From TrEMBL:
Protein name, per record: NlpC-P60 family protein
Example GO molecular function: cysteine-type peptidase activity
Signal peptide region: 1-19
Residue ranges occupied by any NlpC/P60 domain in the UniProt entry: 307-462
PROSITE patterns membership: NLPC_P60 (PS51935)
Source organism (scientific name): Luteimonas granuli
UniProt record similarity statement: Belongs to the peptidase C40 family.
A GO BP entry: proteolysis
SUPFAM superfamilies: Cysteine proteinases
């Protein structure tokens, strides 16, 4: 009895733990007006009256894409290229891109890049080797690869120590992207290629040259899968490194090998828990072939492009939430315009690569702003904008996701935002550097200029 009484005394002396203890409140967000609920697509979907209403049918999307290819000068119609390309055209493509800046550049260690080194990079363009004309050659990208301003992997920056924005980085291409191969660097390591949305330099090791008709037929094969996650990766395969651990980005379409025998192994695995897909492969001779690969059933994929609805747009956008900002698709990520275009690619919608072209594309439903348009008019347009509408300012794009008490909120891939706390004249700079949710009204581009006054247009992918 004495022992039991002692134990009871000790237990009563311990601190009590309440089953109904209040959860520890989350720390406040640095972004003004942001709360935890804003970081889920469900919050914005639940606020919509008809979140699953189809905005554009597949037939309407096909018609819009055809208009994009016909009317937007930034889009290259690869299938319409002539059998032979004039050297003057190739020179024009290269010289439009590969221009050395006049300002000083710095390497990743913060050291100035010498004019001698820049001269060698420029000489690697080999413009003097351009023929008067040449047969049009086609290829296909076999791995995610950078598109570069010059045929070099050297990363250069405008300021010493500021190594996020590589001034020689343009974009990226993904497995299965078709290209026209129009020139080769002096050192033989790079191609200048023309893709549907960009013309730039790419390392030769990532491009396989092949037959024109076979390349375009691969992109139309059925059945197929569309990557609907931020990324998907094929199964690791030591038996066939060419199709092992291949990264596929949102919106990439790959044909399915539907008749693969269920009892036949592929690269050391039975496909009982994987899709058998077909991927482009580059041979030792640089030629294109196709090989089967395993894509795990756990991958976020669909058997067709997603229906274009506001709910689906929100779900797709939030799959990138928190990803690091990657200028020109660097850091194995994407930038603001790549973020927008890859979301829409998962619906089969084609839009230009860069904000400068996206913001003015005549093939979209555009609401332009003039410099003299008042703040109130711009704000009203944002209050009437719908989820998925793309909001542009010089050099940046944001995607509308909804409104809180009538105030517009966006999701975007951004280096940061500035705002002024109430009662203060001092700008607070937030180094966000990724895909984030922010309100638009508090954003400032300078101490006296609200971001809303800098908006140039709203592009709506809808009737």
């Amino acid at each position: 009895m004495r022992l039991a009484a002692l134990l009871l005394t000790l237990l009563l002396a311990l601190p009590t733990v309440s089953a109904a203890r209040e959860p520890t409140p989350a720390p406040p967000f640095a972004v003004p007006g942001l709360v935890e609920a804003h970081l889920t697509p469900a919050h914005w979907i639940d606020a919509l009256d008809e979140p699953d209403r189809v905005i554009l049918t597949p037939a309407q999307i096909a018609a819009q894409n055809a208009r994009m290819r016909a009317e937007d000068a930034s889009i290259h119609r690869l299938e319409a290229l002539p059998a032979r390309i004039a050297g003057t055209q190739v020179r024009a493509w290269i010289e439009a891109l590969s221009k050395l800046p006049a300002n000083e550049l710095f390497d990743v260690h913060g050291k100035p890049v010498s004019r001698h080194d820049l001269g060698r990079i420029e000489a690697n363009l080999a413009l003097g080797a351009l023929p008067a004309d040449q047969a049009t050659r086609y290829g296909m990208v076999v791995r995610r690869a950078a598109l570069r301003t010059f045929p070099t992997g050297l990363r250069v920056f405008s300021r010493a120590g500021d190594t996020d924005i590589d001034r020689f980085q343009e974009s990226a291409l993904f497995p299965g992207d078709p290209v026209a191969i129009v020139h080769e660097s002096r050192d033989g390591d790079w191609y200048f290629v023309v893709s549907e949305r960009y013309a730039a330099w790419i390392e030769k090791q990532y491009v396989a040259e092949g037959d024109r008709d076979a390349i375009f037929a691969w992109g139309q094969r059925t059945p197929f899968l569309v990557v609907t996650g931020a990324t998907a990766r094929t199964a690791y395969s030591p038996e066939n490194p060419a199709v092992s651990d291949v990264q596929l980005e949102m919106g990439v379409r790959v044909p399915v090998v539907s008749d693969w025998p269920s009892m036949d192994e592929l690269n050391g695995q039975l496909p009982a828990a994987a899709h058998v897909i077909e991927l482009p492969v580059r041979g030792d001779d640089g030629r294109l072939s196709f090989a089967p690969a395993l894509l795990p059933r756990s991958a976020d994929v669909a058997s067709d492009y997603l229906p274009l609805t506001e709910a689906n747009i929100l779900r797709q956008a939030f799959k990138f939430l928190g990803e690091r900002y990657g200028w020109g698709h660097s850091y194995n990520a994407r930038d603001c315009s790549g973020f927008a275009s890859e979301i829409y690619r998962s619906f089969g919608v084609l839009i230009p690569r860069n904000t400068s072209a996206q913001a003015v594309s005549p093939a979209l439903n555009r609401l332009p702003f003039d410099k003299g348009d008042p703040y109130a008019q711009r704000l009203q347009a944002l209050r009437e904008a719908r989820p998925g509408d793309l909001v542009y300012m010089p050099g940046h794009v944001m995607m509308m996701i909804g409104h809180v008490d009538g105030e517009p909120f966006v999701i975007h891939d951004t280096s940061g935002m500035s705002w002024k706390p109430e009662g203060s004249d001092t700008l607070v700079r937030l180094h966000l550097n990724g895909v984030v949710v922010t309100p638009v009204v508090p954003m400032m581009t300078s101490a006296t200029t609200p971001t809303i006054d800098r908006l140039s247009s709203i592009q709506r992918i809808r009737p």
